[in-house]
Amino acid sequence: MVEIPWNTYLATLVLILGLAMVSWGLSWGVNKVLRESLDPMIAQALVRSLRIELVGLSLVGIGAGWLWDIESLFVLSLIFGCEELYETSLVIALERSTHDSPQQAQA
User: Cα–Cα distances in Å, from 15 out to 20, 28, 63, 81?
Assistant: First the structure.
């Protein structure tokens, strides 16, 4: 019996989790656009979908870099994932604040 080290299992798990997040983000975003195409909050839903997809892609890169011992891929994917998570969170917060402002002014 061939013994597989534990880090291979974890790297494969991270890779599969990333692929699942990418497919979930794509399907969630497409469904949201098709169902609520006239909703003014559609931009926020699209950015949320994009955030899920980008974090999933960075997890795929982290898992692949870990699995194949490519340190540069691992580090760059980690940096890319953190940066995109930060950036999309700022866009969502900005979208929320600009969307909530007219409602508060009318009240």
Answer: 9, 20, 4, 14
User: Which pTM was predicted?
Assistant: 0.83
Distance of alpha carbon 52 from alpha carbon 58, whole angstroms: 10
3 within domain boundaries: no
Does residue 4 fall inside a structural domain?
A: no
Task: Write the pLDDT tens digit of every residue in 13-45.
Answer: 999 999 999 999 999 999 988 887 777 778 888
Q: Which residues of 57-92 are buried (b: 16+ CB within 10 A; e: fewer)?
A: bbbbbbbbbbbeeeeebbeebeebbeebeeebeebb
How many domains does the chain contain in total? 1
